[in-house]
Every structure is written in C-alpha cells, then in structure tokens.
C-alpha cells in the first residue's frame, strides 16, 4: 500500500460512520411526512429497514449540533433503539434548516 493510501485509510478510520442518508434528505422526508416542523412522525414511516433507521437516527443523535433539533418520543407503534433508547417517533425543530 502506498503512503498516500495508508494515510487515507487511517484518516477514514477516525471519521464517524456515515449515516447513509444526507441530513437534507432526511429533513425533506420528515417535512413531507409531517406537513410541518414540530409534529411527531413515526420512525417506521421513513420506510427504512430497522437497521437503517437505527443507524441513521443514532448517527445524527450523536452529533450535538444536529441532535438538538431532534426530539424522540415513545408511544404506540414500532419501536427502534436510538443509541440504546427505545423510541417510536421523531419531531424536528424548524431551526434545523439553519444548518442545512
């Protein structure tokens, strides 16, 4: 392996995992499901697999600059584990658009 390839591999290893769905796309999907910011949407409505749902939302939940706009709740419906916490719904604050 070349020195450049080794450098790239080691810097890639230190990056946080890619959530697989860009934040802008997630917010657009949320808005189409909720109709407006602040309304809870079932995580199952995003039509991702359970593993994808947990990976995407957990990844964004780990980033303070993003997670402060996410509000997870648990009510009736399919439960997902977001960073070890069982949740069914998410709502987003309109201010999330300031970081898109």
Structural class: alpha+beta
- The domain tally reads 1
Helicity range: 25-40%
Output the number of helix runs.
4
The best one-word shape is: globular
Give the CATH architecture.
Orthogonal Bundle
Sheet having the most strands: 3 strands, antiparallel
Mean pLDDT: 87
Low-confidence stretches: 1-17
Described by its quaternary structure, the protein is single chain
The count of β-strands is 5
CATH fold name, please?
Arc Repressor Mutant, subunit A
Radius of gyration, in Å, reads 16 Å
Strand order of the largest sheet: 1-5-2
Task: State the distance separating the first and last CA atoms.
Answer: 37 Å
CATH hierarchy class name: Mainly Alpha
Q: What is the N-to-C order of secondary-structure elements (H for helix, E for strand)? A: HHEHHEEEE
Percentage of β-strand residues: 15-25%
Describe this structure in words.
With 100 residues, the protein is of the alpha+beta class. The chain has a single domain, classed as Arc Repressor Mutant, subunit A (Orthogonal Bundle). The chain has helices spanning 3-13, 23-34, 50-61, 64-67, and strands at 41-42, 70-73, 80-82, 85-87, 89-92.
């Amino acid at each position: 392996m070349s020195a450049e390839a080794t450098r790239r591999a080691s810097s890639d290893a230190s990056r946080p995992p890619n959530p697989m769905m860009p934040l802008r796309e997630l917010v657009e999907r949320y808005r189409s499901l909720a109709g407006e910011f602040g309304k809870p949407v079932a995580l199952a409505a995003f039509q991702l697999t359970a593993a994808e749902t947990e990976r995407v939302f957990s990844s964004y939940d780990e980033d303070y600059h993003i997670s402060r706009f996410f509000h997870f709740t648990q009510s009736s419906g399919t439960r997902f584990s977001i960073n070890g916490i069982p949740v069914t719904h998410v709502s987003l604050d309109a201010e999330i658009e300031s970081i898109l």
